[in-house]
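Before a computer can learn anything about folding, someone has to put a protein's shape into writing. The outcome of that step, for a single protein, is printed below:
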Amino acid sequence: MTISISKALKLKNRQAQLVQRLQTQLTTHNSRLEGNRVDLDLRQVHTDLLAAIDRLIVIKTAISNANAPVQSLIYRIAELKSLISVLRRVDTKEGRQIVAYMQTEPQEFEVTFSASDIEAMVGKYEAEIDDLQDQLDRHNSTTQIEIPDPIAG
C-alpha cells in the first residue's frame, strides 16, 4: 500500500500499541493457579506477537528510509528539545538571598545567564523547532512511501 509518511506514522503507532497489548497479555496471563481457566491461547498470542513485531519493523524501516533526506531535521529537533530541557534547569538565582536553613546573613549570588537570558534562548530555540517541525510536517504529508502487505509469520 502506498501512503504518506504522516499516515505511516499513525500506522506505526497503532502497530506499536498492538505489540504492547500482546506483550501485556503474554506477561500477565502466563502463570495462574492450577485448574483456573484461561481465556487466551497464549501460544497464539506469542505467534501473533512475533507477526506484529515483524510488521512494526517493516513500517519503521519504510519510514526511516523515506526520512533519510530530512534526518538531520529530526536530529536537530531532538537536540534542541534536549537543550531547552537543560536550560530550564539552569539556576538563575542572583542577588542577596538567604538560602540555607537557620542562616542569618544573606549571601550574594551572581549569574552568567540571567533568567531573562535563559527565556530569550528558550524562545529562540522553540521558534527554530517550530520552523523545523513545519518543514518536517510538509515532508511527512507530501512524501509517499510503500508499506508492503503484512508478511506471513
Q: What stands out?
A: Helices lie at 5-29, 42-66, 71-88, 115-142. The chain has a mean pLDDT of 93. Residues 32 and 38 are 8 Å apart (CA to CA).
